């Protein structure tokens, strides 16, 4: 299997295949996702582990006209305002991580046909986060818990479950911290209480066919560099 360029239009036949082939999708078909399929994915994801079975997540699945109005509101906010996330976004990274992040940006812009020096094009590409990259459904993960390291682990377990279950069904996903950048917009649009923190979101849908951007598969470090046996 060529892990540099993978098509994920078919269903995944095993957890291993879902792990090997899942990657972030940034171009989607307009085809809506059947509600029973979404329900199946998220009900199964509720089996994800959490600290003492605390289950610190709430899930908001947004499609149709509500999805469109939320995309418009978020895009407007992102165009004229600075992000105000309710979680602290990382500001510093080890040097090896910085290199991976820089390399990833260069590769994605290259596949998308964007010159790294073209700031306007890069900004427009970034804004596509807030219209869910054209996905027919957006998912917002919220929590009423005080946010700490272990709540973050629990939410990460839930997120990974959703991504793999969606891949099993032949759906594409893109997990996005950016969708937690303007929590008040999300709360207002969805009528959420103030104490419900907007953590992040997921774009989900059928991957757009014949998309080179969708075939880009992020490289990983060699196992021998990161895993040690004793």
UniProtKB/TrEMBL annotation:
Q: From which residue to which does any coiled coil extend? A: none
UniProt keyword Flavoprotein, yes or no: yes
Kindly give the Gene3D superfamilies that the UniProt entry links to this protein.
NADH Oxidase (3.40.109.10)
Domain Nitroreductase: where? Answer: 21-206
> What InterPro entries does UniProt report for this protein, alphabetically?
Nitroreductase, Nitroreductase-like
Q: Keyword Flavoprotein, does the record have it? A: yes
What Pfam families does the database record attribute to this sequence? Nitroreductase
Needs which cofactor? FMN
Highest taxon listed in the record's lineage: Bacteria
User: Which SUPFAM superfamilies does this one have?
Assistant: FMN-dependent nitroreductase-like
Keyword entries, A-Z: Flavoprotein, FMN, Oxidoreductase
Report the sequence similarity comment from the record. Answer: Belongs to the nitroreductase family.
Q: Under what name is this protein listed? A: Nitroreductase
Which organism does this sequence originate in? Leptospira bouyouniensis
